[in-house]
Amino acid sequence: MIKRLNYTLLLVAVLAFTIQVNAQTTTSENTYKGFNITANATGGVCSYLFWSDTYIQAGGGVGFRYDFSRFWGIYTSLDYESVFKPANNEHYRFLRIPIEMEFHTRHFYARGGLSFGIGLTAWTAANAKECFNIGETVLELGGRIPLTTHDILTIGVNTNVSVGFDKVYFDGIASPGLSPSPPRFGACIRLGYEHRF
């Protein structure tokens, strides 16, 4: 009788544990799905791959991410960039909109995609203004530091490999077609704050 009671108690305990684990798995999976808002600040040095130009970049922005599973989401943001080229004292400003896929865990993230940019200031040479930049590849790796269940600090390295196209205006007149951007590589430190709704 006591043996049968022990077996019954053991069976009930295993069944209760299994139900609890299944419930926690379902709950945690749904917890990770949802909408996030982010704020970021960037700064760093970039250089052209085939040119001798080097420039200093700083900026910031507001981003949005939708997580459709525990580890995967889609990310976009509106970023302001200020770019300074010390060699010829040129200064440019851009608005950029990246569209990226993101893989993330509790303490790590990696995202990559394409970027679309709009020039806000004129180039010094011949009053040419870069109006659109299409197709820059954006890659970013970083760490996540949870503060609460809804708030996270992020620090990462944002790289920009330009293989895109520019639409350029000269004195208000658009140049025909799109011209390829000179290839470049840059690495910027990005600090961010993320809030999950």
Description of the structure:
There is one protein chain. This protein is α+β, with helices and mostly antiparallel strands and 197 residues long. It folds into two domains: 1-32; 33-196, Beta Barrel (Porin), CATH 2.40.160. Helices cover 16% and strands 63% of the residues. It is built from one helix and eleven strands, in the order H-E-E-E-E-E-E-E-E-E-E-E. The protein has one helix at 2-32; strands spanning 34-48, 54-67, 72-85, 90-104, 108-119, 128-146, 151-162, 165-170, 173-174, 179-180, 184-196. The chain has an eight-stranded antiparallel β-barrel with strand order 1-2-3-4-5-6-7-11. The protein starts with a helix and ends with a strand.
Sequence-ordered SSE layout with sheet pairings:
Blueprint: H1 2-32, E1 34-48, E2 54-67, E3 72-85, E4 90-104, E5 108-119, E6 128-146, E7 151-162, E8 165-170, E9 173-174, E10 179-180, E11 184-196
Antiparallel strand pairs: 1-2, 1-11, 2-3, 3-4, 4-5, 5-6, 6-7, 6-8, 7-11, 8-9, 8-10
Principal-axes shape call: elongated
Name of the CATH class of the largest domain: Mainly Beta
CATH architecture of the largest domain: Beta Barrel
Stated plainly, the CATH topology of the largest domain is called Porin
Radius of gyration: 24 Å
For the record, give the distance between the C-alpha atoms at the N and C termini, rounded to a whole number: 54 Å
Order of helices and strands: HEEEEEEEEEEE
